[in-house]
Recover the amino acids of this structure.
């Protein structure tokens, strides 16, 4: 759940140029007046930016029956799904999520992209949003702005993966199917919590942080943040293949850190990482009734398979299936979640078993 789709940290630079080849979506802004957050904070106006592909279809009863929401990772935006490794497999004519058939909705979540965020002006006075707030805003985007009263599929990566679990528990009848990718349905603890806290402490311990009211970005804090994002988003085998010498590894690291120093805002990334602080759907997994295809990868630093959490948790999900993408020279660590070639057959299976009976 990393910055600029943290799960693709090792590919961040390449991803920028890929955007020109992506499908061209429509974009818009949903505006919610007097938005109240779960911790009691509020904003007079919350903006949620979003992208769409395709057109909503209504069945004979008047209900939308082809809407799919795609939920990005920490630090990312809805545009991450326009990258070739996702879009050129799924969002093409004849693809599983062909926009000629489905209405695809890709929001920038609270604190991200073109949506309301601390760097807009409130800085550290911005409300401390969490995943429940993000899902609430997604729900309102669908029901109030886009007039979508049902989802064919919730698909989410990393942070969006965790949002899919929140969706399944909070709105169990709203979606036909759920596909979370690259997360665990448990409290953020252990090493997963530690690297996040290292990142946040690295920013706030920089004297230039100035309580979030910095005039210039706190560079040393951001350097620590970049280090943590790179480590969490990467995996040893693809790194070793891509940078097999010391000099190549140093050069790649310098490029990635330079990119983060140019693009990160300290308040924004601090809030983005902090928003996971109270996530823990573990006690309510039994409330999830929609068919779920849950996918993780064997080389994921953030959700390492040796924890065994997934294998235990999936037993509590009534119609849940779990698949682990095997580690290989072609996988991408945490970022495997957005490379559709590794799991598109699982999505096809999910859409088949959750669709109308023939």
């Amino acid at each position: 759940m990393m910055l600029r789709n943290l799960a693709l940290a090792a590919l961040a630079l390449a991803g920028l140029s890929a955007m020109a080849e992506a499908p061209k979506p429509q974009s818009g802004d949903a505006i919610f007046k007097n938005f109240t957050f779960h911790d009691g904070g509020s904003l007079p106006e919350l903006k949620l930016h979003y992208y769409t592909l395709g057109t909503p279809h209504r069945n004979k009863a008047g209900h939308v029956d082809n809407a799919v929401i795609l939920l990005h990772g920490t630090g990312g935006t809805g545009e991450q799904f326009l990258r070739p490794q996702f879009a050129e497999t799924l969002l093409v004519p004849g693809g599983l999520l062909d926009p000629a058939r489905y209405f695809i909705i890709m929001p920038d979540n609270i604190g991200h992209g073109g949506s309301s965020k601390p760097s807009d002006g409130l800085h550290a006075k911005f409300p401390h949003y969490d995943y429940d707030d993000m899902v609430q805003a997604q729900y309102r985007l669908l029901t109030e702005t886009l007039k979508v009263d049902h989802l064919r599929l919730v698909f989410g990566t990393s942070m969006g993966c965790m949002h899919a679990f929140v969706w399944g528990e909070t709105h169990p009848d709203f979606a036909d199917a759920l596909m979370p990718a690259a997360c665990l349905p448990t409290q953020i603890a252990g090493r997963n919590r530690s690297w996040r806290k290292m990142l946040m402490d690295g920013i706030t311990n920089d004297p230039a942080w100035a309580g979030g009211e910095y005039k210039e970005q706190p560079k040393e804090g951001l350097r620590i943040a970049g280090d943590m994002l790179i480590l969490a988003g990467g995996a040893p085998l693809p790194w070793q293949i891509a940078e097999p010498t010391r000099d190549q590894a140093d050069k790649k690291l310098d490029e990635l850190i330079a990119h983060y120093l140019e693009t990160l805002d300290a308040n924004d990334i601090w809030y983005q990482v902090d928003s996971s602080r109270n996530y823990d759907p573990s006690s309510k997994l039994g409330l999830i009734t929609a068919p779920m295809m849950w996918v993780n990868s064997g080389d994921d630093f953030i959700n390492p398979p040796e924890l065994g959490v997934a294998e235990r948790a999936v037993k509590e999900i009534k119609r849940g299936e779990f698949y682990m993408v095997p580690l290989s020279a072609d996988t991408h660590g945490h970022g495997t979640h957005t490379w559709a070639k590794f799991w598109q057959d699982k999505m096809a299976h999910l859409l088949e078993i959750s669709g109308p009976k023939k």
Notes: The chain has one domain: 6-190+274-354. Residues 192 and 302 are 6 Å apart (CA to CA). The first helix runs from residue 12 to 18.
